[in-house]
Amino acid sequence: MTMVKDLPVDDRPRERLMAYGPGILSNAELLAILLGSGSKEKSAMQLAQDILSQHRESGVLALATMSVEELMEYKGIGSAKATLLAAAVELGKRLGLNTTVQKPVVRCPADAADYAMPRLRFQQREHFAIILLNIKHHILSMPIISIGSLTASVVHPREVFKAAVQNSAAAMILVHNHPSGDPSPSKEDLNITRQLMEAGKLMDIPVLDHIVLGDNKYISLKEEGMIQ
User: Fold this and answer.
1) Which residues of 44-191 form beta strands (DSSP E)?
2) What whole-number distance in Å separates Cα of residue 84 and Cα of residue 68?
3) Topology of the domain comprising 109-220
4) How far apart are CA 103 and CA 156, in angstroms?
5) Nearest Cα to Cα of residue 199 among 162, 145, 147, 225
6) Is residue 205 packed enough to be buried (19+ CB in 10 Å), middle (13-18) or exposed (0-12)?
């Protein structure tokens, strides 16, 4: 077995990163740096290549959907490496959500979908969140209210409006993902939307829309005329 330390200096991922910057490295090389070491049978580079080769269709994006437990199924990845990889992936997601210092503003459903997509697109269970807005429709935060099964999440109005009140929100947009990749809203989606819209009227925190996310696509219930 060829270990990373046995490779010529110019072929070692860490040395290449230091010499040329991270942009020149392949996905396998970047993953190998995070892994740090492999197993007795495989180097970190070989282990990284094995992981990526088992996910040829999605490639490095597969890491965004893998749990710590799934990562630990690979020989050579223990809890320490698995949690490090999970943390790195989460940082990448958060960086994608914070591309500007100024708070993003929601002018149309696409703005809300663009904000929520990086965080929810790769979730393997249904996540129900709310995009909280101030009076000028700048985004205050997007708390996750409920995490459900592959096909459904349970949403309690009290939790929705508790988060809205705590953040002094003037309005909100409901958003959740469909792990199937198909954003078509279900009957339950429509029912909970109407229920929360009625509660919003009582609380004086209007529910402006409900965005259902699929695989890099979305449906706005407001835009589709499914809610008024």
Assistant:
1) 127-133, 139-141, 144-147, 171-177
2) 9
3) Cytidine Deaminase; domain 2 (3.40.140)
4) 28
5) 162
6) buried
Give pLDDT, residue 152: 63
The whole model's pTM is what? 0.62
Helix/strand/coil for 147: strand
Cβ of 48: how many Cβ atoms within 10 Å? 26
Q: How far apart are CA 84 and CA 120, in angstroms?
A: 20
Residue-level pLDDT at 102: 66
Residue for token digits 């965004």? 64
- Side chain identity at residue 93, one-letter code: K
Distant-in-sequence, close-in-space partners of 177: CB < 8 Å, separation ≥ 6: 120, 121, 123, 126, 127, 212, 213, 214
What is the C-alpha to C-alpha distance for residues 83 and 78, in angstroms, rounded to an integer? 9
Cα 108 from Cα 17, distance rounded (Å)? 40
The C-alpha atoms of residue 50 and residue 30 are separated, in whole angstroms, by: 14
C-alpha span between 199 and 48 (Å, rounded): 49
CA–CA separation, 112 and 107 (whole Å): 8
**Full 3-state SS string of 128-158:** EEEEEECCCCEEEECCEEEECCCCCCCCCHH
Are 46 and 29 spatial neighbours (Cβ–Cβ below 8 Å)? no
User: Chain-centre distance of CA 216, in angstroms?
Assistant: 12
Local mean pLDDT, 10-residue blocks, the chain (228 residues): 45 79 83 88 88 82 87 91 92 70 86 93 90 94 84 81 91 96 94 95 97 95 93
